[in-house]
Design goal:
Length: 152
């Protein structure tokens, strides 16, 4: 015990434990879905859509509103614990339908968040199902981007 206590006072200990970059964490790190929503906003008549929890899109909207100095329009699937267990199909179908009915966009640009990626939602199949059930028009473009923050 005494030997360990003495070692903590050496330069060797300090170099190994306090000189590391990994101890620095940025809590406001910009993640992939944020970039995806930013890109989607560049297309005229496009509604950026985040398939994930409300907290993610709230952060993105706040960040982009501060950047543009005006409200940033984006919507979310509003996934909760039940979607994390059973999948986000119902949230996505209802969200796409509501988004189309409220905003009438020319295109809905969908991106995923960590939650949707971790549970393995099949976004392409979900979009096809939503169109087949006539919840949104079959000819409405809905490009999807897989954008988990834990990759890349």
């Amino acid at each position: 015990m005494t030997q360990a206590a003495e070692w903590t006072k050496t330069w060797d200990y300090r170099e190994k434990n306090f000189e590391r970059e990994a101890l620095t964490i940025n809590p406001a790190k910009a993640c992939q879905p944020l970039g995806s929503l930013f890109v989607a906003s560049g297309f005229e008549g496009t509604l950026p859509y985040s398939h994930g929890s409300q907290g993610c899109v709230a952060y993105f909207r706040t960040h982009l509103t501060r950047n543009y100095k005006e409200p940033f329009q984006a919507v979310s699937s509003s996934m909760t614990e039940d979607a994390a267990v059973f999948g986000g199909l119902n949230n996505l179908k209802q969200g796409l339908q509501n988004s189309y009915e409220l905003y009438k966009p020319k295109m809905i640009a969908l991106c995923t968040t960590c939650m949707a990626e971790v549970i393995g939602d099949d976004i392409g199949a979900y979009i096809t199902t939503t169109k087949n059930e006539e919840m949104i028009p079959a000819d409405l473009p809905v490009p999807a981007a897989h954008t988990p923050s834990f990759v890349g």
